[in-house]
Structure formats: structure tokens, C-alpha cells
Design brief:
17% helix, Sulfite Oxidase, Chain A, domain 2, 5-stranded antiparallel β-sheet, 4 helices, 5-stranded mixed β-sheet, alpha+beta, 41% strand
């Protein structure tokens, strides 16, 4: 029984998210790119006053304020996809993963064909309300989603770019 309890404790410790001080962009790209907090300061910053975080039932879970971030579109413009035809880019998607293995998916067109270039942000600074320690320094949010909590990735550590089979 003691061993079983110890296993449960160790498994619980592994499932907790760790801080994310960098993330990689990999997959069907010509060269893997690593972005850290320092390199994010080289990109154009966007500031947003606040975003209400709603769950899938559109119930308020929290809000984030004093948001500073970099548009994902701007970061991805530095990445070369293994594709010669721009028309074929519509067949690509991004899997954004957190340190706790939470994953969200965006299509290539969702990122590059949106009316607003700030529709998906890599967050570098924000204040959570109610105040709680968000897991991870680098986060990602889709600012134009209705249920904002579904694609709020705390502790972003990887963006994998793939082509649909």
C-alpha cells in the first residue's frame, strides 16, 4: 500500500506543468527555431488591456489583464516551411503544446488569413485575476475566440507544423 501511495504521488508530480522559458518551432520546417523570452523582445509587441477567460460553456473562469505579447504570425514569418507551393500551405496545421502536455491546434489559414494580425498572441507578460500562479512564463491565447479558455496555452514549449495527410 505504501508503494502504491508513493507511485501516485510521483505521477502527480510529473503531471504538473513546469515553467516555460522557451519554445521550439519544428516539424515540416527547413530549420528548427528556438524562441526564448530574450528573443521575444526583438519582435513587435502588442498590448491589450484585458481578456475574459471563458470555458467551453461560456462561463467566466478568470481574466487576464495588462497583457503584453507578440503576434504568432510575426514569429512564424521567420520560419521556412518545407513546401514550394504557397497554395499548398492551406494543407498545414500547427500543434501548440504546453509543458503539461496540453495541446491546441490552429490551421495555417487561421494564423495567416485572419482579419486581425493579433488574433493569436504569444504572451510574455500578464496579470491573472483571480490571482494565481499561472504555470509557465510563456503562454499563448487566441484573442478572437469566444471560448477563450479552450486555446489558452500556459507554459508553451513547442509548436509543431505538419501537413495534413
Amino acid at each position: 500500500m505504501k508503494y502504491l501511495f508513493a507511485i501516485f504521488i510521483l505521477c502527480g508530480m510529473n503531471s504538473q506543468a513546469q515553467e516555460s522559458k522557451q519554445f521550439t518551432i519544428e516539424g515540416d520546417v527547413k530549420q528548427k527555431l528556438t524562441i526564448n523570452l530574450a528573443s521575444l523582445s526583438n519582435y513587435k509587441k502588442v498590448s491589450i488591456d484585458s481578456i475574459t477567460i471563458l470555458n467551453h460553456l461560456l462561463q467566466r473562469k478568470s481574466s487576464i489583464k495588462n497583457i503584453k505579447g507578440v503576434p504568432l504570425k510575426e514569429i512564424l514569418s521567420q520560419v521556412e516551411i518545407n513546401e514550394s507551393s504557397p497554395k499548398k500551405l492551406s494543407e498545414y496545421y500547427l500543434v501548440c503544446s504546453a509543458t503539461d502536455n496540453y495541446k491546441v491546434v490552429f490551421s495555417w489559414n487561421e494564423v495567416f488569413n485572419a482579419k486581425s494580425e493579433n488574433n493569436i498572441l504569444i504572451l510574455t507578460d500578464f496579470v491573472a485575476d483571480p490571482e494565481k500562479a499561472e504555470k509557465g512564463n510563456i503562454a499563448m491565447i487566441a484573442t478572437t475566440d469566444v471560448a477563450t479558455g479552450r486555446r489558452f496555452v500556459k507554459g508553451l514549449n513547442k509548436i509543431s507544423i505538419h501537413k495534413v495527410n
